[in-house]
From TrEMBL:
Gene Ontology MF term list: methyltransferase activity; nucleic acid binding
Organism: Xylanibacter rarus
Pfam families membership: Cons_hypoth95 (PF03602)
Lineage: superkingdom: Bacteria
Gene3D superfamilies per the UniProt record, alphabetical: Vaccinia Virus protein VP39
Swiss-Prot/TrEMBL keywords: Methyltransferase, Transferase
Protein's UniProt name: Methyltransferase
One GO term of the biological process aspect: rRNA methylation
PROSITE patterns: N6_MTASE
Length: 185
């Protein structure tokens, strides 16, 4: 796993072979971040990475200048790996939490400029996540939410949906709670 750009560009981390998590491919990660450049400036943003897995996205967000990142992962070994990577980078801009994402969402009172979620594709609750995250008010006004999912899911009918991108077998749906442009009455 490598960090694509930013202050830690090119740093590599070897993922233990015992891990079940599949990190977002470098190809997909690079492309989705290129798309995001048109929607949000991550410099000094407050970000949330749900189902962090190996921490690939959290590390990328820190490298790209986010003011703070909260990384939520339930698996004990994955959580420990994320903490180990953060320690190697010597950064305090990411808080790695070990816990259930749904409990976190229900109890979180903070708002974020950017949210990324990469749940297991077979997660039974996967189809409910975009609506849940958007309805809980976790996004700041004009915030961006990127949801990674399998090819068999479509979220075009969810309020706040902006666009869908696919890179190989990796699919992203992008959402926002952008304020409507000044409408005349």
């Amino acid at each position: 796993m490598r960090i694509i750009t930013g202050i830690y560009k090119g740093r590599h981390f070897d993922i233990p072979r015992t891990f079940k998590a599949r990190p977002t491919t470098d190809f997909a990660k690079e492309n989705i971040f290129n798309v995001l450049n048109g929607y949000i400036d991550l410099e000094d943003a407050i970000a949330l990475d749900l189902f962090s897995g190996t921490g690939s996205i959290s590390l990328e967000l820190v490298s790209r200048g986010c003011q703070s990142v909260i990384s939520v992962e339930a698996d004990r070994d994955h959580h420990a790996f994320i903490k180990q990577c953060l320690k190697k980078l010597g950064t305090d801009r990411c808080i790695a939490l070990r816990g259930d994402v749904f409990r976190f969402i229900k109890s979180c009172h903070q708002q974020f400029d950017f949210i990324f979620a990469d749940p297991p594709y077979a997660l039974p609750e996967l189809p409910t996540l975009p609506k849940l995250i958007l309805e809980r008010g976790l996004l700041k006004p004009n915030g961006i939410f990127v949801f990674e999912h399998g090819k068999n899911n479509s979220f075009e009918d969810v309020p706040g949906f902006i666009e869908h991108r696919a890179y190989g077998s990796v699919n992203f749906s992008i959402f926002s709670n952008r304020e409507p442009e000044g409408e005349d009455e």
